[in-house]
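re: ur question from earlier - yeah i can do the single chain one, its not a big deal. heres the input i used so u can compare w yours
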Amino acid sequence: MKYEHLPYNKNLKSNARDLRKSMTKQERHLWYDFLKTYPVRIYRQKIVLNYILDFYCHSAKLGIELDGSQHYEDDTHLKDNQRTLILNNQGIKIIRFSNLDIDTNFNGVCEYIHNTIQNRLKEKLQWENI
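and the output i got, formated as tokens:
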């Protein structure tokens, strides 16, 4: 499969590297206990355009974001919505989970991610065969 290059801001490389080194408890849990060994490659702290996505599955064009309490403040919530819109325009679907979701419903979160990836891959295959 041909790799479609996504534009990214090279100035964010060191920030992304730092974020990979200092993941939150919930990010570590999701990464080490599910995403790292998932059969489809998933990147952590992936730069896309001018944003750093917590996790990104290129094959499914899926961004996975974990939101701490700061994401529920009005200003941050508006920025998140704008960012999601911009990424959607690039064909990237964004799914969000709260840290509480990870802490209290980890298996449900993993199942939702798995189903979303599988559905996106099926859709992609259908589009490629048209």
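Residues 42-71+79-130 form a domain with the Endonuclease; Chain A fold (CATH 3.40.960.10). not sure if urs matches, ping me
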